[in-house]
Amino acid sequence: MKFPTNFGLVMVTLGLMLISSPLAECGAFGLKVNLRNPFSKQNSKPTKTSETPAQSPAAGLAPAPSPFSSYPWTPSGSGLVVGFYNDKCDSNVEVIIEFLVEQEFKKDPTILPALLRLQFHDCFVHGCDASILVDGPSTEKTAEANLSVRGYEFIERLKAALESECPGVVSCADIIAVATKVLIKLGGGLDYPVETGRKDGLVSNAADVQLPNPSMTVDEAAAVFAAKNFTLEEMVVLLGYHAVGIAHCNFFQDRLYQGTAQFDSEMDPSLVRQLKQTCPQSPITNNTTPLNQDSTNNNTLNNRFYGELLGNRGLLAVDQALSRDPASSTIVTKLSQNRALFDIRTAQVMIKLQAVEVLIGDQGGIRKTCGNIN
């Protein structure tokens, strides 16, 4: 059963109304609710009811289709599985994460691009093992490419909540993956079946951080992605997550001004004038602007980002190059013209990203706190 988005609020309300009874019926959802633990998996099992469809409070409403059965999901083949924690914790791990992520997203929608970036930066260094979360003077977190990454404190709060429910069971790597999946859904993407079973890494070194450079050519970027077993098309799809988020001036400023090595004479002139106000050549600033310059975008994952690239309105050189290089321009065009294709491919490729070089079984470990290796 798929819980409604306000599931956590419903559970709390029931607890206040029926605190004198540890077990109560919730007819609206057909659930038997354990009020001592609103996230108990007992709450996720529908009870039999004598109501006929005509008598149901929801009669006349077509049931929502399962998002997992409507699209061609393919297992990553990494050893991860959907529902890994189903028999490992009395509480529903993914429901807890979803509830807390939804609350955070309401307060700060920018947590969506923040965790997308954190997930990518983690997976491209030693795989998806939460090594980016480790504290220390020379860990991945301290690498120059990761200095502006954020979301660490939020992941740590999720970890604390799960440790209180089932200590030593849920990995920080899985928390990142599930939280990112929930945020993608909240940001307008598809609700794909997240795979779990990752272990946390035991190594985290700043010197190991080698990530794609925003000034790379398509060929250079494709070589970096190919090293992680991604095709050119999959790289174009992953860079489509730049539909949300911001960029600092230093990542694209040289593209605005003649006489610089990266000056882009083809950039939309109206965008150049606008960006020069945000990023003056002198004095140098650390201002930011949305990666997606589509004025209708509001922190939403959609394919209009590719249309911006086709209109020469891309901020990062590597993004803009996708629409100009013959090897990738056709892919950009197809994605810009087909929202359904964009939704499906971004979900499928995210499943693949979240399975990069994962640690499973006896590999790695489960941290007590995400910032410290046990």
Automatic annotation (TrEMBL):
In terms of Pfam families, this protein maps to: peroxidase
What residues does Ca(2+) 1 bind to? Answer: 122, 125, 127, 129, 131, 140
Provide the binding site for Ca(2+) 2: 294
Cofactor(s) named in the record: heme b; Ca(2+)
Subcellular location, in the record's words? Secreted
Annotated active site residues, numbered on this chain, are 121
Major localisation? secreted
Metal-binding listed as a keyword:
yes
The domain of life for this entry's organism is: Eukaryota
Q: Which reaction does it catalyse?
A: 2 a phenolic donor + H2O2 = 2 a phenolic radical donor + 2 H2O
Sites where the protein binds heme b? 242
A Gene Ontology term for the protein's cellular component: extracellular region
Amino acid composition bias (Low complexity), ranges on this chain: 53-63
Q: Where, by residue number, does substrate bind? A: 212
Specify the signal sequence span: 1-26
GO molecular function list: heme binding; lactoperoxidase activity; metal ion binding
EC no. given is 1.11.1.7
Name the family the entry cites.
Belongs to the peroxidase family. Classical plant (class III) peroxidase subfamily.
- Entry protein name: Peroxidase
